[in-house]
Design brief:
about 230 residues; globular; 7 strands; alpha/beta
Length: about 230
């Protein structure tokens, strides 16, 4: 029997990729529910989302732009499948990786799986050197606090049992979501595994949104959520 998966998709101004992304997500055997949160997009993203008639799609709309963290929180709250996965609306991460990500969960030896862009033999687009340095630094800093030896704390692909996701009270509204989730999962003493994934990063001209300010925020979040009781 195929595992039951809810995919949570925060979307802000991704008209170039959202239609193909949704199509590829729906093609995956495990997907039972796709919760798309349109984060007050100003382009045609919402129009393209609503073109889909598949009953598995749940479309939520934020009246104002709240950020990725706030959107994922909404998705976690209403997810109904056994497992829940975070999927960015761009095409940097491939939905075809779902079986690989789900395997440790379905096999019963993991509660949470992170998809690592660095622990992999698959293709990975060579892009910004300083982004990689920043990612390695943030992952190292997070590991020092959590005592978990992750290779890619900042990865989008985090998939977990839905009952665990519903216990997490997400506070961060933007990209601080990643260190916050990592810190809170570590405190829950759940079994975390990593799986190597492919990665097709994009440039700022192609729509990449994360900036150095998000890196500074991530440092704040690592310290904050690991030191909180």
């Amino acid at each position: 029997m195929s595992p039951s998966l809810t995919v949570v998709v925060p979307c802000y101004n991704e008209e170039k990729t959202i239609k193909q992304l949704i199509t590829r997500v729906l093609e995956q055997d495990a997907v039972r529910e796709v919760i798309i949160i349109n984060d007050a997009s100003t382009d045609n993203s919402l129009k393209l989302i609503k073109e889909f008639q598949d009953q598995r799609i749940v479309c939520l709309e934020n009246a104002t732009n709240l950020g990725k963290g706030a959107s994922v929180k909404k998705g976690f709250q209403i997810a109904t499948s056994e497992y829940v996965l975070i999927q960015d609306a761009d095409l940097e991460y491939s939905p075809e990786e779902y079986p690989r990500l789900l395997n440790p969960l379905v096999s019963g030896y993991a509660d949470v799986v992170f998809g690592s862009r660095f622990l992999t033999y698959d293709s990975r687009r060579a892009l910004y050197f300083w982004h990689r340095v920043g990612n390695k630094f943030l992952t190292l800093l997070s590991n020092m606090f959590t005592n978990i030896d992750l290779t890619d704390m900042e990865t989008c692909y985090k998939v977990m049992r839905t009952d665990i996701a519903k216990q997490i009270d997400i506070k961060e509204k933007r990209f601080g979501l990643e260190p916050e989730l990592t810190a809170k999962l570590a405190k829950m003493k759940v079994r975390i595994y990593e799986v190597g994934i492919s990665y097709r990063g994009r440039t700022y001209l192609e729509g990449k949104k994360i900036t150095w300010k998000d890196g500074i925020s991530a440092i704040r979040c690592i310290i904050k959520y690991n030191l909180l009781k």
